[in-house]
Each structure stands twice: as C-alpha cells, then as structure tokens.
C-alpha cells in the first residue's frame, strides 16, 4: 500500500537538493570508473555500463524504501536480519573466494555481497529495538543491542571482511550515542573517539612495532600481504599527490591508466578522481559528501519520532564512516581495509544498499509532517 | 534525565545530541581536506615527479629464518650469506638478449633462466631468478651492471646446516615455495621465491621458522639501480627452535649405524622427548637446500638406498619377536594363559599340513611365559596366538599404539599395519586365513611397525605403562618478544594392562639381557631390559645364512630401556639385513644407553620434568644477540 502522504505531492526544494547531491556524486563515480577502465575494454560489457545498471537497480531500491511507511519497514527488520544472517552463513559455506576473502554469493554472472546489505539491516534492527524497548539502564541500552549485533559481526569478520565489520561497530556506536549515555561526558567522549577513530587509529597504529601490526593484520585479515600493502598504498598516494591543484584531466591519470594503482575502479576510485581532477575537484567532492551528510542530519533532527531519528542517525553514521575511512586509507592516513567509497566505488551490492538507505532517509523526511498518532 | 520524560521530550533530547554528530562530521571532512591539501599542494610536486618518472620499485626483504638448536643449545641450522640474482622485468628491454648476456658473461644456464623469467609476476617487483651464485659469477655480473639493466645481485641468507648430514631426516631441508604450494591458503602470506621448509621439522614448524617478509620501496635510476629508499617495512625474523635431540647421542647413533641401512630411536619415556632419531643412509640437507639441477635431483631420488626416506618414522618393518611383548600382555590380560602356564616346545608347531618352525631347531622344551620371552620361544606364542585369534591380538596391538602414527612432529610419518579379519577384508578383499594368525603371533606376515613406534611402545612398558607422545620440539624462542616458550609433555594415559601383567613382562625383559637372547647388550654401567627381534624378509631361504645375498637377509631389531627399574631412556634399533637382533642390534642399543648414562649421570629431579638443560637453553637464548 502506498501511503497517502506521497500522493499528489511534488518535490520541495529540500528534496530536490537532496536528490541533486546524490545524482552528482553518482555521476562523478561513473565518470571515474569510465576513465580508469577506458583503456581496457575487451569484448565484455564495460564496467561503467554495468555500474549504470547497478545505479538503476539502486534507484528502484530507493523508490521501494521511500513509498512504504518506514514504520512498516521497521516491523520487518528482525525478519530481514534473520535473512541476512542466513545469507552470511551461505557465503561462508558456498561463497566465492576472491582476494583471500569469502564475501560473494555467485548468482548467474553476478556476485552478490550480503555484508553490504547487512549494514542497512543492522540500522533497521537497532533503530526498531531502541524505538520499541524501554531505554533504561546499561543492560538495555548497551548490552542487549550489542548482543543483537554480535552474530552478524562475527559472521562478517569470519569471511574476513574487516571493513564491513568496522562499519558494523561504527553504526552500533553512533546509535548508542544518539540514544544517550547516563553520563553526558562519557557520551561526548565516545562520540568524538568514534569520529576521530580513523585518525587516532593511525597514531596508535604508527606507534606499534611492525611485527605487532603484522600480527594484528594477519589476525583480522589472513590475506593481508605486507609486501603488497605498502606498495599499493604508495601508488595511491602518488596518484592523489600528483594530481596537484588542477589535476591531470579525464584519462590523464597516468598512475591509474598505467595500472600502477590496483583496484582503481573499486576501493581506490577516490585516488583516480583526485589524480584527474586535482585538489579543486577533491574540494568539490568533499563538499558534496558534507552536503549530503548535513541534509541527512537535517532529516534526523526534524524526524517526528525516535524511530525516524535513529534510522537517520544510523544511515549517516554508515555513510560518514565509509567516506572517512575510504578517503583516509587512499590518502595514506589509515591502514588499507577494504571499504568502498559510498556512491562512487564500482559494485552492485554496495550501490544498491546505499541507495536504499538514502531512500529510507527521504521516507523519514516526507512523513515528518504527518500528525502524531 | 531524558529517560523518564515523555516520548516527545526524549525525541528532542535525542535530536539535540545529533549536533555532536554534526560537529564530528565537520571535523572529519576538515581533516581529510587538510590531508589532501598536504598531499596535492604541499607535496604535489614530489608525487608528480614520482608518477612521471614511474621509477618506484618494490623490493621484497626476505626475513631471516629461525635457527634450530639441539636440547643443549648446540646450533643445528643457521643462515649464511649467499649471492642471489634478481631481475626487474619492467627494466629489461629484451629478455632473449638478457639471457644470452648472462650466459656469455657469467656462464649461467640459459634454459633455467628462460624458465624463471617466463613465470608470471608483477613486472615492478624484483624477481629472484637464481640463488647461490658463486663469488665469481656475482662479481662478473656486478661489473657489467651497465650492460644489464634491471639485473641486480643481492647478498642474502642461505640456509646452512653446520653438522652436514647429521640429523638430516629430522631437520629436513628448505626450498623455494612451489607454484602448487602458493595456491594453498596456509602459504598465502608468501610470494614466488619465498623459501620454506620442505622436509623434517623445517616443514612441520615452518610457521614459526619462516618469519615475515618485509618490503622496501625504492626509487631507481635509469638502469634499475637503487637511488633512494622511499619506504621500508622491515622483515620480521622467524622464531628459533630448541629440539629435544641431544646432538652427542644423535651423532653416536649415526656412527653406530655406520654404512649399514637402518634406524635408531632414543627417547625419554618419562616425557616423550626424543633424544636421537637416526636414519641411514642420509642426505646432505645443505645440498638439498640449494638449487639442484634436475640431474642432481634425479640422482638422489633414484639412489637405491633411498636416502630421503626417514627409516625411523617412515620405515615399516615386521616387528619380529619384539611383537611378543604385545602378545604376552594380550595373553595375560585375556586370561588365555596364567604366568605359570607351561607349553612344550619341540622346535615346531603343526597346523594343518604345515609345520611352523621355531628359530631353535631342537626346541626349548617345556617353557613358561617368562622363559618364552627370555629365550624368544616361537612355539609358545604360536600356541597362545592361535588360542586368542587375530582380532584379539589386533585390539591389543592397537592399544599399544601400533597401526597408527605416533604423532611425532615430522611430515609423512607412517603407521605400519596391525592386521585383523576386517583389515584383510578391506585391504585385500580376501578372508583371513587361520595360518596367518600364527605368523602374526611372532610379528611376521602382515604386521609392520616403525622404529619410532617400537621406541614409544617399549618406553611405555618401561615407564610402568604410562605413555607420552614422542616429540621433537622442546621450546620455541619467539623472536618478537624474546620469550622462550617451553612446550609441555603430551601425556597419553596408561597402557590398558594391569600392573601385575606389566611387572611379569618387565621382569622377563630384564631376563632377556641378563640370561636370554640379548646377552650382548649386558652392561656393567646400568641394568638394561629389552627384547630382540628378527624380521624375516624372504620366506624361502636357500642354504645357510652366510651364503644368502645380503638383500634377502633378515632385519635385526632390538628394543630396550634402562635403568630396568625406572627407565630414563628407551632405545629402538633396527638394522636392515643384518640377521639376528641379539647379535646385530643389541650391542648398538647398549652403546647408546651407556653413552646416555655417562652424559647424564645424575638422576632426574623428581619435581622438574625438564631437568636436563632448561637453564642452559634459557641462558643461551638470553645471551644470543637479538638481530
């Protein structure tokens, strides 16, 4: 059933702005994928065209998450979480292994990555938990939701997918902080440590001995290769740095074009963009991401109920964390963990799930004017 | 606070906290922008230079492999410098010319170079093409470096075994990881050219010894030589191993075997620590750890003496009369006989139309169990075995640890065969024949065991039935922390026999040395107990022993422990084609035991199971420079 609220009402200026920012970032992403894979087109479908298909599917997911009242969607959250857990088990048992991790379920010619959807489902589950449960005491605030998160987190770390695992923790922490802690000081402290975690991480990481880092990395990510990592990290920094102020122009990225930079269309798409468009391009992109975050916060702050506010906060935390960690790692501030750049990196599962999450945000916004029940 | 307000108040409270999220997001974006400004504006020129010249190369820094020591800290394996040839394909204009030049300049084999250079790898990584260059080759190549762009000679470490062929089988050797191995998950932190253990403890403990490779990113000049280092990740050296082996006993065991083919295993039955594990003929791990030419490899593999086979853990021989220990225990436990039961031995046992002979032509006369063990009477055990049936025998043999690998930390250990009706049905597809039980009763026929199994078995009997898994690693010295991790003994419980049964057998085993078939093992230093065995290799033997070609002669066994009352050492000796155990094998065991007693005269302290040398290994670990 399509809600009455959506009928016969056009887009207001806020909503147009929200959509414009999303479309702008998506376009930059497709352009960068187009540029990096331009030289290597064989007989197959080019990657940018496949990405356009993912975006269309993402658009469908966006609309689907928009038309049904988010309260209805939240009622399905535990069912969805159960489905995601089953899929995560399927991945471990029958999944496709690529680059040392088992993350994909092959479906025909495509590969489906449940851990990307797991993040969105976690937001739904935690938000509906907090919205419906009494929120007194640390057991109900901290421990129970932590236990809810745990099976998904462990299954993801088993793959291993450190990036998605960290995103899980970020979503959980952000929700916890917005729900509120007993002590305000502790809350603020935790929130800032979450925000500054990627940067603090580098300081802690840098102070460890190389073998300690290697041990940690082999523990969380057995495919980690001390050889490859430093080299790719450097190639990524060279790509970004050599872009200078104005960039080398479309197809001008020698690092990415000459294949010195691996994964130029996925995790390192930001480096490709920064090399070709320079610091000015980077500022525009950062402004777009910041704009998206601010518009999303606006939705959260004006949400009509706890469920809406928490859902929005979760989505913001997920997207904000991925942007910060992805750009941080390509710019050599963080160790390289596999986190895609939202709306830009090539990949069907991530694109569809992020767009579904943004559809959910717009859903919350469009229902804030309905009366309290 | 907000917890007790209305939902509306709570919502407001919650939404106010979102401001902090907002501030955090601003801070993160600001930080990212600052970092990117630093990379693109402040250091932009430097990175542009790097990207335009595209002259960064990745050099893998091989870790130093962990060292291996004996139980007293005597070095058994270390690393020595060696010259290796590396090629960066990106800097090579034409492979054919390069291969020709290397051949004419330094006489390197063209076929090997071509094969190495055609393997698929990252073009920007320096690839190891040949190891172990001679000084002459290294100098010739280095002096022509201007003609050889992309070619580099690096001094790196090569595995070295200072004791040569000593302990070759248990130490093993190292070699480059193969393409097949690289596919497997346990090797996914390695790269083409990594050196790993391929045999012995080098293989089983490779995870510890291996260390972790580092990497250096360098900026190179026009011919691929290093101009400056951009980034370094240091390699982490592998952990060191302290073996349970006592090098002095190991050397003695190998000397005792000399040119003969066979194995000697000595272990401490109270802990399972293996003190010596010798197998002859052996190989030189130094040779196998270098790059072998196909011809050299062929020679080793086709050697008739099979020097690569570790006879102590992979050699499966009929146990011969040493199997009577198991038979005696089974017979007493199943009450098939009483200790006093006497059986008349007239030199043979008639079964159907066949006469199963005793080794002593005239027979032993009327014998009881003890006498039957002491003199190794065959007819006594033919009779007992026939009464018990093969499946009872098999069940006891299995409980004594036969028929399965002992679990010592060596690759490809074999378990021997404990035959039973079910086994024969499965393995041969034929029913068990009653006559086969008679052969099995004296350890012939299908029964086979390895020397390590027999040392383990006799050790457990000597140690009043308490058994420990044989083990080779005493401690691991973790390089990262400098800590010495001592590995504990692995208790395996008790043999499934009553104390009285074991006492009867132990007394008989002492009698074997004092008055029986192993009188040549009698020592004035220490009381030894044991059992001889002669493993038949051919059913039909023409004429007297001396005329038989050596290939067809029997294998000599002796399994023993000492001191007889409370053993500190158990020794199993097997010498191939040397005839009777009492004559050929028993004296070797006596030498081993006497040497052990002289080397470690004091009784072990009761409180400390590791009394032998924990202090000395610890001190050594502390003193050694931490490189």
How would you sum up this structure, described in words?
The complex is a heterodimer of chains A (373) and B (627). Chain A has 373 residues and is mostly helical. Chain A has one domain. Helix content of chain A is 70%, strand content 3%. The longest helix of chain A has 33 residues, at 269-301. Chain B is built from 24 helices and 23 strands. In chain B, strands 2, 3, 4, 5, 10, 18 and 19 form a 7-stranded mixed sheet that branches. In chain B, strands 12-11-23-22-21 form a 5-stranded antiparallel sheet. Chain B has a 3-stranded antiparallel sheet with strand order 1-8-9, with no helix packed on it. In chain B, strand 14 and strand 15 form a beta hairpin. The longest helix of chain B is centred in the N-terminal third of the chain and has 36 residues, at 7-42. Chains A and B meet through helix 7, helix 8, helix 9, helix 10 and helix 12 of A and helix 1, helix 2, strand 1, strand 8 and strand 9 of B.
Task: Please outline what is shown here.
Chain A is mainly alpha-helical and 373 residues long. Helices cover 70% and strands 3% of the residues of chain A. In chain A, strand 1 (96-98) and strand 2 form a beta hairpin.
CATH domain fold name of the largest domain in chain B:
Beta-lactamase
Radius of gyration of chain A, in angstroms, nearest whole number: 20 Å
The overall number of domains of chain A is 1
What would you call the shape of chain A? globular
Structural class of chain B: alpha+beta
In the CATH hierarchy, what is the superfamily of the largest domain in chain B? Answer: DD-peptidase/beta-lactamase superfamily
- The structural domain count of chain B equals 2
Number of strands of chain A: 3
Quick one: how many beta strands of chain B?
23
Give the termini separation of chain B. Answer: 59 Å
Helix-strand string of chain A? HHHHEEEHHHHHHHHHH
Low-confidence stretches of chain A: 218-228
**Average pLDDT metric of chain A:** 80
């Amino acid at each position: 059933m399509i809600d009455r609220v959506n009928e016969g009402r056009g887009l207001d200026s806020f909503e147009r702005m929200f959509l414009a920012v999303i479309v702008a970032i998506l376009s930059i992403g497709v352009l960068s994928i187009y540029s990096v894979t331009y030289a290597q087109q064989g007989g197959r479908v080019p990657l940018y065209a496949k990405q356009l298909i993912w975006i269309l599917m993402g658009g469908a997911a966006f609309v689907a998450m928009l038309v049904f009242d988010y309260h209805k969607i939240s009622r399905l959250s535990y069912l969805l979480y159960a489905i995601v857990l089953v899929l995560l088990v399927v991945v471990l048992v029958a999944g496709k292994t690529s680059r040392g991790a088992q993350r994909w379920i092959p479906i025909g010619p495509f590969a489906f990555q449940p851990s990307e959807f797991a993040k969105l489902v976690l937001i739904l589950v935690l938000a509906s938990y907090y919205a419906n449960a009494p929120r007194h005491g640390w057991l109900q605030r901290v421990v129970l939701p932590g236990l809810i998160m745990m099976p998904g987190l462990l299954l993801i770390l088993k793959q291993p997918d450190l990036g998605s695992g960290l995103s899980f923790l970020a979503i959980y922490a952000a929700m916890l902080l917005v729900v509120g802690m007993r002590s305000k000081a502790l809350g603020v402290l935790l929130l800032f440590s979450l925000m500054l975690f990627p940067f603090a991480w580098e300081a802690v990481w840098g102070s460890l001995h190389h073998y300690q880092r290697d041990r940690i990395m082999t523990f969380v990510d057995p495919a980690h290769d001390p050889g490859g990592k430093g080299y790719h990290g450097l190639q990524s920094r060279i790509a970004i740095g050599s872009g200078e102020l104005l960039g080398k122009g479309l197809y001008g990225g020698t690092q990415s074009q000459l294949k010195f930079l691996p994964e130029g269309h996925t995790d390192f798409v930001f480096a490709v963009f920064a090399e070709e468009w320079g610091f000015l391009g980077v500022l525009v992109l950062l402004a777009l991401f910041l704009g998206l975050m601010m518009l999303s916060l606006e939705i959260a702050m004006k949400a009509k109920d706890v469920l809406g506010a928490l859902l929005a906060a979760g989505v913001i935390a997920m997207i904000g964390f991925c942007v910060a960690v992805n750009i941080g790692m390509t710019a050599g501030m963080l160790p390289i963990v596999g986190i895609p750049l939202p709306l830009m990196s090539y990949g069907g599962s991530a694109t569809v799930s992020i767009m579904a999450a943004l559809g959910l945000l717009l859903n919350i916004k469009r229902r804030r004017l309905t009366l309290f029940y | 606070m907000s917890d007790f307000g209305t939902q509306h108040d709570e919502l407001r409270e919650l939404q106010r906290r979102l401001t902090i999220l907002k501030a955090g997001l601003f801070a993160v974006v600001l930080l990212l922008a600052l970092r990117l400004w630093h990379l693109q504006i402040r250091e932009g020129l430097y990175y542009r230079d790097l990207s335009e010249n595209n002259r960064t190369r990745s050099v893998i820094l091989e870790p130093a492999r962990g060292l291996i020591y004996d139980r007293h800290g005597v070095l058994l394996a270390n690393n020595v410098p060696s010259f290796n040839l590396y090629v960066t394909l990106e800097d090579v204009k034409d492979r054919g010319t390069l291969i020709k030049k290397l051949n004419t300049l330094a006489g390197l084999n063209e076929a090997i170079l071509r094969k190495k250079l055609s393997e698929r790898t990252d073009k920007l990584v320096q690839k190891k093409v040949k190891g172990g260059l001679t000084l002459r080759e290294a100098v010739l190549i280095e002096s022509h470096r201007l003609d050889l762009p992309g070619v580099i000679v690096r001094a790196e470490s090569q595995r070295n075994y200072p004791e040569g062929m000593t302990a070759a089988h248990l130490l093993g050797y190292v070699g480059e990881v193969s393409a097949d191995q690289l596919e497997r998950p346990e090797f996914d932190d390695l790269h083409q050219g990594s050196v790993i253990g391929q045999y012995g403890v080098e293989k089983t403990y490779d995870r510890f010894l291996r260390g972790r490779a580092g990497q250096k990113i360098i900026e190179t000049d026009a011919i691929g030589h290093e101009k400056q280092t951009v980034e370094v990740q240091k390699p982490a050296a592998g952990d060191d191993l302290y073996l349970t082996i006592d090098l002095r006993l190991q050397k003695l065991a190998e000397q005792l075997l000399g040119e003969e083919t066979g194995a000697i295993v000595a272990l401490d039955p109270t802990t399972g620590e293996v003190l010596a594990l010798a197998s002859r003929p052996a190989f030189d791990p130094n040779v196998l750890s270098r790059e072998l030419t196909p011809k050299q490899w062929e020679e080793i593999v086709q050697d008739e003496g099979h020097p690569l086979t570790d006879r102590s853990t992979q050699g499966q021989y009929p146990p011969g009369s040493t199997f009577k220990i198991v038979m005696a225990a089974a017979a007493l436990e199943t009450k098939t006989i009483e200790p006093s039961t006497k059986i008349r031995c007239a030199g043979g046992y008639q079964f159907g139309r066949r006469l199963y002979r005793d080794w002593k032509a005239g027979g032993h006369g009327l014998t009881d169990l003890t006498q039957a063990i002491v003199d190794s009477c065959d007819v006594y055990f033919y009779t007992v075995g026939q009464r018990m049936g093969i499946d009872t025998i098999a069940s006891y043999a299995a409980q004594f640890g036969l028929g399965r690998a002992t679990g010592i930390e060596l690759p490809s250990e074999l378990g021997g065969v404990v035959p039973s009706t079910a086994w024969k049905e499965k393995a041969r597809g034929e029913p068990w024949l009653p006559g086969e039980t008679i052969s099995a009763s004296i350890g012939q026929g299908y029964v086979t065991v390895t020397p390590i199994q027999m040392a383990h078995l006799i050790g457990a009997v000597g140690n009043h039935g308490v058994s420990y898994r044989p083990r080779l690693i005493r401690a691991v010295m973790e390089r990262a922390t400098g800590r010495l991790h001592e590995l504990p003994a692995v208790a395996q419980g008790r043999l499934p026999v009553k104390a009285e049964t074991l006492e009867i057998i132990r007394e008989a085993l002492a009698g074997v040395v004092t008055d029986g078939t192993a009188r040549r093992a009698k020592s004035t230093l220490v009381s030894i107990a044991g059992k001889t065995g002669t493993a038949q290799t051919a059913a039909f033997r023409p004429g007297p022993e001396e005329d038989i070609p050596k290939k067809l002669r029997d294998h000599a066994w002796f399994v023993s422990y000492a001191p007889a009352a409370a053993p500190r050492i158990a020794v199993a000796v097997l010498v191939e084609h040397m005839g009777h155990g009492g004559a050929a094998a028993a004296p070797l065991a006596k030498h081993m035991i006497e040497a052990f007693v002289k080397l470690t005269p004091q009784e072990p302290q009761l409180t400390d199971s590791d009394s032998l040398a924990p202090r000395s290994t610890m001190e050594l670990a502390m003193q050694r420079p931490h490189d």
